[in-house]
Amino acid sequence: MKIDLRSDTVTKPSKDMLEAMMQAQVGDDVFREDETMNILEKRIADMFGKEQALFFPSGTMANQTAIKLHTNPGEQVICDKYAHIYNYESGGASFNSGVSCKLIDGNRGMFTADQVVEAINPDAYYYAKTSLVEVENTTNKGGGACWDYQELLKIKEVCNTHNFGFHLDGARLWHALVAKNETPKQYGDVFDTISVCLSKGLGCPVGSVLVGDADIMKEALRVRKIFGGNMRQVGYLAAAGLYALDNNINRLAEDHKKAKELGEALGKLSAVKSVEAIETNIVIFELHADVDENAFLNKLEENNIHIIGMGGGKLRMVTHLDYTNSMHEKVLECLQTF
Fold first, then answer.
1. 82 within 8 A of 109, measured Cβ to Cβ
2. Residue 12 near residue 205 (C-beta atoms within 8 A)
3. Which of 33, 206, 257, 280 satisfies CB 3.0 to 4.6 Å to 144 for a cystine?
4. What is the reported pTM?
């Protein structure tokens, strides 16, 4: 029994999800004739109270499209130093949109409205023009931390005052909604564009969706084409998304519970220096300096438990829907032997 806690992207479609995919009514989505995809996009747009939604093969492409829609070459995006768009999208912001990033030294990937104000470039021709503020919820490198909604409202006020775009990388937004008992509509009210992932947490094999109102989204389809992201009979993937929305959102609370239990077990180990606060499904912990990280990982792998190192003595576990109760019990038992 392989226990894979490297990421919540390792899940495979369930039997019921596969059945839903096989029953999908499909067409050519380049002609906007895929019935199932049209249903998925409208449903997610309606959930967030937005006018339009567009499906993408990856969250990275959805985020990169959003940056392109909000900016012009030579402008600047304000984001956290841990932001996915800066660290893990292969320099796409500069390559695709010709923009730079002004990095905020936030707390676990989150920052304040006052920090946004401080990060705005002066209005002089020799500075890059600030045009977009981007946040990530939950924060990946922040250990699945959830933003304070009231702080997001304050940042929105700053964006409105300065006529900035406001984009949410919601790769794990579903987790935040469940953990904080919030609604998609609340976030649709705050952000101009939102990307949400269907393959992190919800168990789909592929896909993210970008939502926004008609004015900002009018070029989204063309930009997706430029990035090579147009697809044909993609309704099979849309059917997986519809199934996930119906069946896999509320159960995220189970993943959060297991993550907290893993954190409690890790906190009792002499090899572990600290465990970061756990709100959702990501567990980040740090080993003492005298502990051999490779030996720690190898001992887990000997028990067919797979996690990843993040560098600097920090390691990560991510719970997900394919991480069963029996797997969880085995991991907890194994940790007791460390």
1. yes
2. yes
3. 280
4. 0.97
Q: Which two tokens stand for residue 217?
A: 């989204």
Taking the C-alpha atoms of residue 223 and residue 243, their distance in angstroms, rounded to an integer, is 28
- Copy the structure tokens of residue 337: 């032997």
The residue written with tokens 């592929």 in the block is: 206
C-alpha separations of 299 from 4, 163, 243, 295, 332 in Å: 14, 53, 37, 6, 14
- What is the distance between the alpha carbons of residues 11 and 75, in angstroms, rounded to a whole number? 38
Using DSSP, state whether 309 is helix, strand or coil.
Answer: strand
Tens of pLDDT, residue by residue over 141-152, are 999 999 999 999
- The type of residue at 24 is A
From residue 27, alpha-carbon distances to 31, 48, 231 in Å are: 8, 26, 10
| Distance separating alpha carbons of residues 170 and 186, to the nearest angstrom | 13
**C-alpha angle with apex 336: 330 to 338, nearest 5 degrees?**
115
Sheet strand arrangement including 52-56: 52-56, 208-212, 193-197, 165-170, 129-136, 75-80, 100-104
- Rounded CA gap, 224 and 327, in Å? 39
Tell me the average pLDDT across 168-197.
98
Q: Do residues 135 and 147 make contact, with C-beta atoms less than 8 angstroms apart?
A: yes
Q: CB-based burial of residue 72 (10 Å sphere; 0-12 exposed, 13-18 middle, 19+ buried)? A: exposed
What pLDDT, in 10s, does the model give residues 266-316? 999 999 999 999 999 999 999 999 999 999 999 999 999 999 998 878 999
**Where would I find the H helices in the chain?**
15-22, 35-47, 59-70, 84-87, 92-97, 113-119, 149-162, 173-180, 184-190, 214-217, 220-226, 235-247, 252-267, 293-302, 325-335
Per-residue DSSP letter, 74: T
Distance between CA 86 and CA 100 in Å, rounded? 9
**How far is Cα 168 from Cα 186, in angstroms, rounded to an integer?**
12
